[in-house]
Amino acid sequence: MNKTIRFDYANARAFVKQHEWEQLAPAIEIAHQMLHSRTGPGKDYLGWVDWPEQYDRDEYERIRQASARIQSDSDVLLVIGIGGSYLGAKAVLDILGHSFYNLLPKSKRRFPEIYFVGNNISPIYISHLMDVLEGKNVSVNVISKSGTTTEPAIAFRLFREWLEKKYGREKAKKRIYITTDKQRGALKKLADDEGYECFVIPDDIGGRYSVLTAVGLLPIAVSGANMDALMQGARDARERYMVMDLSDNPCYQYAAIRNALYRKGKTVELLVSYEPQFRYFAEWWKQLFGESEGKDGKGIFPASAEFSTDLHSLGQYIQDGMRHLFETVLSVRKPAVDLTVQEDPADVDGLNFLTGKRMGYVNKKAFEGTVLAHVDGGVPNLLVEIPEATAYYLGGLIYFFEKACGISGYLLGVNPFDQPGVEAYKANMFALLGKPGYERQKAELEARLRENKTYLTVEETAAYLELPETFIMEKIKQGRIRAVHDGNEYIINKEQFNHHLEEIRKLREFEDAARHEPIPESYDVKDED
Ligand SMILES: O=P(O)(O)OC[C@H]1O[C@H](O)[C@H](O)[C@@H](O)[C@@H]1O
Predict the structure, then answer these.
(1) Distances (CA, A) of 236 to 53, 80, 162, 170
(2) What are the residue boundaries of the Helix-turn-helix domain, all occurrences included (predicted)?
């Protein structure tokens, strides 16, 4: 009989009155109904609810076969994707794998090194990764539901070229695996045209809910992790967290208590772990809750911390700073490996009282002491504990948070399954990059950018004043515009000279008007700082 994931909110109960808790029960029931009868906002994105039961078995088999192929013909798998298209796989790999897996000698490693890329726009990151690939056999899994996300698309261009250079176009095709929409999108079309093997992100599962689909499963399978156990864990969790009754459903209790805390000003939730292997699980969780709840001017801000590391940096704030925090500690009952503290005859650090103690035990005491201190400091503490860091419990944990997030979003009164706010920066970025169709926005945004700057280069000053660069340069050289050398270029402090910008413009008008007459010597735009 499998053990269960434990949720304990005893260290938060002092912050929530009994009637506040009881009053949430009917709201939980409504949220449960909305989710299960598919009547709430975002109802077209509830495919994840029954996915652990209803996933496509044929595709699952194809994932297994593709992973075996990658394991046999590749030293490296590159996983290209961003947000929901990489965080889940990275989280699972980090927890189930070796902390330094990619660096292990080949004799200690049975499966390919795995690197995640296309999750930033950093040329440094990509060129450094290319250095690592020298002399290695590489396969690529490109993951994008929309197929048009900028970061993975740029990375894919670069690595596709890299593969084609190394293997030739035809052989490269056998090393490219695409995970995208079933029918639509640029990536799907490219995959069909080129004959890349394709896996599906179902229409009714959003990116942040997709880790148990091909999105997460292919990289997870390549890493050698047990995807059957992962799915079984999620399946059992689905069953376990189906109960509508708040008093008997830990998943709903988590949703309820965080909502109760939010209502009284605890607007930041810190997901805390004492194992660095959970770092990316927290990143996955942050996207899950951040994109699901942060809208309509509402939502708990999901943040994370790693203890005891961050107790030496953020610890002061958590203990003593603004009281808008609560913590959810993710704990593993039994560490996968343990070490013993050695005796030091000189006892220079005074720690001989720990001699013979297991490090896992010391970590546990750090955790227990911290919880008490933080609760005393006014930080409610929740605990989510898994028996062991295995694929089975991880599958359950993923489902626990996915469902809690959906319910929590409904309690908050938002659509937990859309993310309209993510588009704003994208539209601006496209406009600034000159994407066709964005011409009007481009001019407006560039004007705003110039307006918001303190320092302008010659080029920016020229654009700002709509004057030729040569004119600005000439006036700087004549000493009529004050500028300072910054490396090879001049920069102009716009704020300092703001009241003169108009005069610089006039200077130009004078010149234009009196093209044949000299500019009056007395007109000087130089000024005190
Ligand atoms: O899978 P993709 O379509 O490339 O999307 C990747 C990510 O980017 C977007 O900006 C969304 O906000 C995320 O929810 C999504 O996970």
Answers:
(1) 9, 30, 43, 43
(2) 455-503
